[in-house]
Amino acid sequence: MSDSAADLELLAGAVAALRRHDSLLRELGAVFADAGHDLYLVGGSVRDALLGRLGTDLDFTTDARPAQMQKLLRGWADALWDTGIEFGTLGVGKDGHRLEITTYRADSYDQVSRNPEVQFGDTLEGDLVRRDFTVNAMAVRITADGIGELHDPLNGLAALRSRVLDTPSAPEVSFGDDPLRMLRAARFVSQLGFGVAPRVLTALTEMAPQLGRITAERVAAELDKLLLGDDPVAGIDLMVQTGLGDVVLPEVGAMRMAIDEHHQHKDVYWHSLTVLKQAIDLEESPDLVLRWAALLHDIGKPSTRRHEPDGGVSFHHHEVVGAKMSRKRMRALKYSKQMVDDVSQLVYLHLRFHGYADGSGTGRWTDSAVRRYVADAGPLLSQLHKLVRADCTTRNKRRAARLQANYDDLERRIAELAAREDLQRVRPDLDGNEIMRLLDIPAGPEVGEAWRYLKELRLDRGPLDHDEAVDELLAWWNARQNT
C-alpha cells in the first residue's frame, strides 16, 4: 500500500471513530463558534482516533482564555473541574464523557526545573509545536457542523504511519524543556508499539541523567502507564538501554549482571522481562501489582549471587533481599503503603512454592504448610498463583511440565482445604475477649501472645472445636506460668 493510500485509510478510520461522538462534538463546537472562538480536538485524542483506539476522554484546545471557557460552558456542561485552571485547562463532564479543554499554550522553560512559565498563545501552530511528539501534534477543527479539517503542520500523520516517535523541535530542546518527555517516550513505546527516531534515541541516551529533575510522583505515574501498556517489555528495555532506567529504576538494569542459574536466558534481566510477559498472559484484566511484582521479583539476585564449587551459580535468599529492595525503591517513588506492601510481599513469597515437592513429585507439603502459604499470601493469593506460574521460563519441557503439575496439585489442595475450612481468614478459634475471660487477664501484651499461639495452632492443625481450643489455651498458659 502506498503512503498516500495508507494515510487515507487512517483518516477514514479516524472519521468513523469521531462520528461516534458526533452529537457531542457538534454541540461543543457550536458553543465555541457562537462565541467567536476556535475549537480543535488535539493531541492524544487525534492520535488515538487515527489508530482506532479512541475512548470517551477527549482533549481540546482553543483560543478562548480560561475565564471565557468557564462562562461559555457553565450552562452546557454536566460538571466543571478547575483544578488545572492555572495552566489553562478546564475539565468538563458531559453525557458520560470526560473532556479537557486547554487554552493555546506558548510556554517557556528555565531548563532547570520542569515547571514551565505558563504563557497563553494565540495560534494553533504555536500550541502544536510545543508538544512532546509529532504524533501528538495534530489537531482536528470542531465546529457546529461537527468534525472539520485535519491540521498537521509537523507531519505527525507520516510519523504515525511509520509508527515512529519524533519530536516537533530538536529532541535536545524538547527534552531539555521537560525531561519527563523522555520517560513518556518509553511509555508510548509500551502503549502504542512505536519505535523512536534515531535522533530521539541519541538524545535519550545523552540526556538520561536530566530525568533526575523530575519529581518521584510524576515518574511513578509514567512508570505505571508504561507497565499497563500492551508491550511493557519494549518500554522497559528502551529505558534500560538508554540509561533512563539507571535514573528511575536502577535495580532492573542491574540484573543484566547476573546470569540465570539455569543458563536458559541471556541473564536475569531477560528472565524477568519474560516473567513479566508471561504474567500478563495470565491476567484476566491489567493488574498493576502483579506486573510490578513480576518485574521486580528477582532484583535481589545480583547482590546474592555466589559462584559454587561445581561451577554453578546460586542466589540464596534473593527473595528476602529482593523484597527489601522492592520496598525501598517503591517508597522512593512515593507509592502508597498498600502498593509497597503488596508488591514486596509477592516478591518475598514468589520462591516459596519451590519447596513444595522434590524432583520426583514426592515430599509434598503438609496441610499446615499449605495453610501457611495461603495465610501469608492473604488477598494476594490469586496474584501469587500467576506470578509463580509465570516464573517458570525453563526451556526444558519436562521440567516445565513437572513444575506446572506440582502447582496444579498445590492449587487443588488449597481448594480442598478451603472447602473444609475458611482459608481466607485463618483466625484463632477463640477471640481476644474470650482469651481474657478464660485466663482472667486484662487487655495487654499477654492477650496478643495467647492469640498468636492459638493462630499458630490453627495453622498447624486446622480448626479446633471450642472445648479443644480452650484446653489448648489453658495448657499453654499453665506451662508458661510455670517457666
From TrEMBL:
<keyword id="KW-0175">Coiled coil</keyword>
<protein>
    <submittedName>
        <fullName>CCA tRNA nucleotidyltransferase</fullName>
        <ecNumber>2.7.7.72</ecNumber>
    </submittedName>
</protein>
<keyword id="KW-0479">Metal-binding</keyword>
<dbReference type="InterPro" id="IPR002646">
    <property type="entry name" value="PolA_pol_head_dom"/>
</dbReference>
<keyword id="KW-0819">tRNA processing</keyword>
<keyword id="KW-0460">Magnesium</keyword>
<dbReference type="InterPro" id="IPR014065">
    <property type="entry name" value="tRNA_adenylyltransferase"/>
</dbReference>
<dbReference type="InterPro" id="IPR006675">
    <property type="entry name" value="HDIG_dom"/>
</dbReference>
<dbReference type="Pfam" id="PF01743">
    <property type="entry name" value="PolyA_pol"/>
</dbReference>
<feature type="coiled-coil region">
    <location>
        <begin position="393"/>
        <end position="420"/>
    </location>
</feature>
<feature type="domain" description="HD">
    <location>
        <begin position="268"/>
        <end position="381"/>
    </location>
</feature>
<dbReference type="InterPro" id="IPR043519">
    <property type="entry name" value="NT_sf"/>
</dbReference>
<keyword id="KW-0547">Nucleotide-binding</keyword>
<keyword id="KW-0808">Transferase</keyword>
<dbReference type="InterPro" id="IPR050264">
    <property type="entry name" value="Bact_CCA-adding_enz_type3_sf"/>
</dbReference>
<dbReference type="InterPro" id="IPR032828">
    <property type="entry name" value="PolyA_RNA-bd"/>
</dbReference>
<dbReference type="GO" id="GO:0004810">
    <property type="term" value="F:CCA tRNA nucleotidyltransferase activity"/>
</dbReference>
<keyword id="KW-0548">Nucleotidyltransferase</keyword>
<dbReference type="InterPro" id="IPR003607">
    <property type="entry name" value="HD/PDEase_dom"/>
</dbReference>
<dbReference type="Pfam" id="PF12627">
    <property type="entry name" value="PolyA_pol_RNAbd"/>
</dbReference>
<dbReference type="InterPro" id="IPR006674">
    <property type="entry name" value="HD_domain"/>
</dbReference>
<dbReference type="Pfam" id="PF01966">
    <property type="entry name" value="HD"/>
</dbReference>
